[in-house]
Design goal:
single chain; about 700 residues; alpha+beta; Ubiquitin-like (UB roll); Creatine Kinase, Chain A, domain 2; Four Helix Bundle (Hemerythrin (Met), subunit A); 24 helices; about 50% helix; about 15% strand; binds adenosine-5'-diphosphate; binds magnesium ion
Length: about 700
């Protein structure tokens, strides 16, 4: 038996493996690349490639692939064999430095939002040496960025890496001002908590809506939902337990630090949280986690649903993005320190995040916008679509004292002076537990809770890193020129709190009163994806990304178009699936069932004419009232979908899908779900909500 310790990362070409497999000098070069971002020389890449190949073959790999994250949001790979004919009828296994560093996938079918048309026809992938290569399905996977020949980003990794550079640059400037000369790099860290549903595969296979769209488009409520709250943290069922063990083992081999697992609020819903790591790697690992979750589920006769809202009326799934900033010397910059000076630094970084979230609340909202997530945000389960920040009572009191130039508690009557006073000790647990806040400080990190379960965390973190970097740049500009650093620092923090405190809210985010208050404060509330996307290219947002070197204007335009198109495409597929299910299965089943009832009703002779209606008569009457209504709603949906699809402009198309197709879908669903409650379980063509939600025992 191998132990977990031996197994962990056994399929990863990590630093320990590099130390073992690479010549000393090459290893030193690699370390410089990994930790200091130094460029790797082509000769070094060749040596690394060769060692990587030998190691991979030893582990049973036969192929390699450049693994990348195009704008579809899922990962892409194209496998190539190591195998090369040696000319004497035999083969040799080859993998060159060139193949490691650069690839040219046939990129024409990945979304580019017009970028490739404008610039170059093809795209290429470029090795990201800061994320370790790994072996999956006998294939050596090389994490790569995906760009057009002109260098425009066609993926989610490139802008994320650029945003990491931006925050590194600006945070270092700030740290230098505090006399921190030992720090050479600053990185953000992320620990994404991943929610998911598990249902039985046999039942899944009988639901075209789940197969085509990932969510149920119809389904009457089951008698039991989540009202008893008996599932959250409940005992894990044996079949689920076996799944989780298998999943953990597989993730550990891939070097993913899966750590906690528990049941979630809804029946059949669970969560997995990893130990946090550098944002870029956490993003790769989350993609990998989602993929492995689905693969392992199949092995256990189940299907893992990652959609944000697989079941109406039951809590959906999100992804809490725990985010912080750390130095290479191991200091968490969002952790209150022990000395007045450390506290001052902490407060500066804290207020930088406050200002960033306030100024770019719209971009944060946009970064989590998707057709699936629209079903959660604003419903009474996930945070509202309004972005606000929760700091906890103690920290809020400290900021209040700074603002009012007073004391932060009754005992201490002294004025809170930054750089002079030590912050009170916050008991860590008291900071958290506002589960309704979209952006909560939890003692030493922020938890951004608006992300959808199926999304890559790249977009949200790109926005977060870039926005905070831009504020830090401003702060550094102001402080670098200061005559009296301490005084300027105090004023800067105070000014920032005063200017941006409208984003702070410690109450219940689900409350209607809050939504009215938020409006008064001028906070944005974009309820749906098309409404949010309409602000993506606002001038201030374009300025942010272009000035920080994270996106060019052309890249932003292409992204905006891709997101709009994506939204419309998803709704189109959902509409077509509903139409197909209604027309070819549901209405025929209803008609057949009504026919059989009518037949048995007429075969029962009525003895007393004024007797109450029989079950058969009553049901036939109800069905014959509802079925035509379903047929009518079906036509409305068909027409709405055709009209929306015909629109040329991607923004207008997305808006039409939201305004006309989505409501038509909802109306059809109401009638069909009504029909489901009348038709016998056996005669209904699809497994019910009860069947699906309680299928894994
Ligand atoms: P919760 O109470 O929300 O379930 P946990 O304490 O289990 O929170 O942690 C949630 C996630 O936060 C974990 O993935 C953890 O690794 C991550 N986390 C902890 N510290 C940091 C940090 N400094 N930066 C980023 N993520 C962090
Ligand atoms: Mg959490």
């Amino acid at each position: 038996m191998t132990t977990v310790r031996e197994e962990f990362g056994s399929l990863v070409f990590d630093e320990a493996t590099m130390r073992e497999k690479l010549p000393k000098e090459t290893f030193r070069q690699m370390q410089k690349t990994l930790h200091e971002g130094k460029r790797l020389q082509p000769e070094t890449a060749s040596v690394v490639a060769n060692a990587m190949k030998d190691w991979a073959i030893e582990k049973g790999a036969t192929h390699f692939t450049h693994w990348f994250q195009p704008m579809t949001g899922v990962t892409a790979e194209k496998h190539d064999g190591f195998l090369t004919p040696s000319g004497d009828g035999k083969i040799i296994m080859e993998f060159s430095g060139k193949e490691l560093v650069r690839g040219e996938p046939d990129a024409s079918s990945f979304p580019s939002g017009g970028l490739r048309a404008t610039f170059e026809a093809r795209g290429y992938t470029a090795w990201d040496p800061t994320s370790y290569a790994f072996i999956k399905d006998k294939t050596l996977c090389i994490p790569t960025a995906f760009c057009s020949y002109g260098g425009e980003a066609l993926d989610k990794k490139t802008p994320l890496l650029r945003s990491m550079e931006a925050i590194n640059r600006e945070a270092l400037r700030v740290l230098r001002l505090f006399g921190n000369t030992g720090v050479t790099s600053v990185k953000t860290t992320v620990g994404p908590e991943q929610e998911y549903f598990l249902i039985d595969k046999e039942l899944y296979d009988r639901r075209p809506d789940l197969i085509y769209t990932g969510r149920t488009l119809f389904g009457a409520k089951a008698p039991k939902g989540q009202e008893l709250e008996d599932h959250y943290f409940g005992t894990i069922k044996p079949r689920v337990k076996a799944y989780m063990e298998d999943l953990n083992a597989e993730l550990w081999r891939l070097g993913v630090l899966a750590k906690t697992e528990h049941n979630e609020v809804a029946p059949a819903q669970h969560e997995l949280a990893p130990v946090f790591t550098t944002t870029n790697i956490a993003t790769d690992h989350n993609q990998l986690t989602m993929e492995v979750m689905q693969k392992v589920a199949r092995r256990h006769g189940m299907v893992c649903l990652l959609h944000e809202k697989p079941f109406a009326g039951v809590n959906g799934s999100g992804k809490h993005n725990n985010w912080s900033i750390s130095t290479n010397t191991g200091v968490n910059l969002l952790e209150p320190g022990e000395t007045p000076f450390e506290n001052a630094q902490f407060l500066l970084f804290l207020t930088a995040v406050i200002r960033a979230v306030d100024e770019y609340q719209d971009l944060l909202r946009i970064s989590v916008a998707s057709a699936g997530n629209d079903h959660r945000l604003g419903a009474n389960e996930a945070p509202p679509a309004v972005v606000s920040m929760f700091l906890g009572e103690e920290l809020a009191a400290v900021l209040d004292a700074i603002e009012k130039e007073g004391s932060y508690n009754a005992k201490d009557r002294e004025m809170m002076k930054i750089g002079v006073h030590v912050l009170p000790k916050f008991p860590k647990d008291s900071t958290d537990r506002n589960r309704t806040s979209p952006f909560a400080f939890t003692g030493n990190k922020f938890e951004f809770r608006m992300l959808g379960s199926s999304a890559s965390v790249a977009d949200a973190n790109t926005v977060l890193n870039t926005a905070v970097a831009s504020v830090l740049r401003d702060f550094a500009d102001r402080l670098e020129g200061a005559e009296d650093f301490a005084a300027e620092l105090h004023n800067l923090i105070r000014d920032t709190v005063i200017a941006h405190k409208r984003i702070l809210f410690n109450g219940n985010g689900y409350d209607d009163a809050w939504l009215r208050e938020a409006e008064k404060r001028g906070l944005s509330n974009y309820k749906t994806t098309p409404e949010a996307l309409a602000h993506f290219l606002d001038e201030k947002n374009v300025r942010l990304f272009t000035s920080m070197g994270v996106f060019s204007e052309a890249e932003l335009r292409s992204r905006s178009e891709i997101y709009e198109e994506n939204y419309a495409k998803i709704l189109n597929i959902e509409a077509l699936t509903m139409i197909d299910m209604t027309k070819r299965s549901i209405l025929p089943a209803v008609s057949k069932f009504a026919g059989s009832l009518a037949e048995s009703a007429s075969s029962v002779r009525r003895v007393v004419t004024e007797a109450p209606l029989t079950y058969e008569e009553e049901t036939v009457a109800s069905l014959s009232r509802l079925a035509p209504s379903a047929a009518e709603k079906l036509h409305v949906l068909e027409n709405a979908n055709m009209a929306a699809r015909a629109l040329e402009d991607s923004a207008a198309r997305a808006m039409a899908y939201k305004d006309t197709v989505l409501p038509a879908m909802t109306e059809l669903r109401v009638v069909v779900d009504g029909l489901e409650t009348l038709v016998s379980h056996d005669a209904w063509p699809y497994p019910s909500y009860g069947d699906l939600l309680y299928s894994v025992r």
